[in-house]
């Protein structure tokens, strides 16, 4: 349940083109809850396809850090 919650929050942050810090916090929490780096990257790419390149770039930068 926590993993799903954190991944959902990541999607919400990406869709709002949120700051990198908020994304980093929730990406870390998702990993702590069992999400893999590949799962998070897949979410970034999926959401980025629908929302836009600026959101994807910010999310990828947060994921890289």
Quick structural gist:
This protein is mostly helical and 65 residues long. It is built from 4 helices and no strands.
Fold and architecture overview:
The protein is mostly helical. Helix content is 83%, strand content 0%. The chain has four helices and no strands. α2 (20-32) crosses α4 (53-64) and α3 (37-51) runs antiparallel to α4. The longest helix has 15 residues, at 37-51.
Total DSSP E strands: 0
The ordered string of helix (H) and strand (E) elements is HHHH
Question: What's the end-to-end separation, in Å?
Answer: 25 Å
| Percentage of residues assigned to helices | over 70%
Q: What class do helices, strands and sheet pairing give?
A: mainly alpha
Output the radius of gyration: 10 Å
Which strand-content bin applies to the residues?
A: under 5%
Largest beta-sheet details: none
Mean pLDDT, rounded to whole units?
Answer: 88
What gross morphology would you assign?
globular
Count of individual helical segments: 4
List unreliable stretches of 5+ residues: none
Give structural attributes.
single chain; 65 residues; mainly alpha; globular
Please write out the topology.
Blueprint: H1 2-15, H2 20-32, H3 37-51, H4 53-64
Helix pairs in contact: 1-2, 1-3, 2-4, 3-4
